[in-house]
Amino acid sequence: MKLLYIVIDGAADRPDGPTPLELAETPVIDSLVAKSKLGLMYPVSRGIAPESDSAVLSLLSYDPHRYYTGRGPLEALGAGIRIRDEYEVAFRANFATVDPKTMSIIDRRCGRDLTSYEAHELARALDGMEFKEYDAYIRVKATVGHRAVVVVGSKSFKLSDEVENTDPAYVKRGVISIAVRDFEAKIKECIPLEDSEEARRTAHLVNMFTRKAIAILNDHEINRARSRRGKLKANAILLRDAGNRLPDIKTLKEKFGLVFGAVVEMPVERGIARLLGMEMEEVSVEGITKIERYHLMLSQVLKLLARCDVVYVHLKGPDEPAHDKDLEGKIKAIELIDSHFFRGLLEKVSLEETSLLVTSDHATPYLLGAHTDDPVVVMLYNPKEEGDGLPKFTERMGAKGSLGFIKHGWELLPRVLRILKMIK
Description:
Elements: E1 2-8, H1 20-23, H2 27-33, E2 36-41, H3 52-59, H4 64-67, H5 71-78, E3 88-98, E4 105-107, H6 116-126, E5 130-131, E6 136-142, E7 147-154, E8 170-173, E9 176-179, H7 197-218, H8 221-228, E10 236-243, H9 252-256, E11 260-264, H10 267-275, E12 279-282, H11 290-305, E13 310-315, H12 319-323, H13 327-348, E14 354-359, E15 376-381, H14 395-398, E16 404-406, H15 412-419
Parallel strand pairs: 1-13, 1-14, 2-16, 11-12, 11-13
Antiparallel strand pairs: 2-15, 3-4, 3-7, 3-10, 5-6, 6-7, 8-9, 14-15
Helix pairs in contact: 5-10, 11-13
């Protein structure tokens, strides 16, 4: 038996009214629903509106409260950077548009149209920045679109990841960042979250970097050219999810005795896959359409299914329009996944020896435009068992399914592997 584990980013919603999953035309997914068992699940725990990184770690069976050390180190690992414990702190970063005089944020993602070339040129302008205070230095590496990794380091002074985000859309709760629904659109001052010299030192360096980055980026030729074309400047960099070490963690093969593969697109997913010892097929989405993206991801899934017991694939699409409060965009994104990933999957994969586990990493209600702690629907297709006979892959149908309610995302995978008799 093989297991294909499909996570549809941000597809779930809050069922106050008809949800995008209910409104979307998804005949291919729905053809599987009647033969599947459904349930509902908190991706991490009730009360936690997770980012994708902690949610993905949870969905792959690791309790983030025990194993998560911050998104920054995972993003860095995915970008090919290994940090020096205690002397470096890694952050997930966004290029953003701000008013340089007031630090007010105009767009947290600079219009979502920053090209890889532009991002790499801007990152290069910041990379290698040095401060005499604390023998400090900065490493900046652009990753995908407006995203980047920033490492704050010191040659001789210890640093701490116990510092607050400068991105006001997320607030740290321990090592997990929680999405904030209502926030002041202004770069936050980085403050220490513990009473230590290391935390105060790190916060001070972050604030110096933030100010200097704006001074460098605002007048950069890339941004002058963007202004001439009527585009938003990428003239600031927002930091969040500090971490100064990678988790000490067993690989999935060590944990379950199975070979896991991952189709990875974003740096944090690549970092998690590397951390957990998963075989990888990487996907570059630069310069291709969303339809081409899903066809490419399917081809990579097929390669991994030939040599792995479990293949994890993370499908982007619905989350982005949900953040923009775009109902029609979210519906269309779900429909594209149905018609251009699932349709090809059913044509090319034998479902006699392959089970399907389908869910979301979090809910992103389109009315709110932010991640929430709402439960997500789970679907398990097992060719050796009858399904619940339900008609559609939706939150309300999940509440009626025989899988019941799963309180923590990290409980899902072990339970499914036992149901499929892939582990004892």
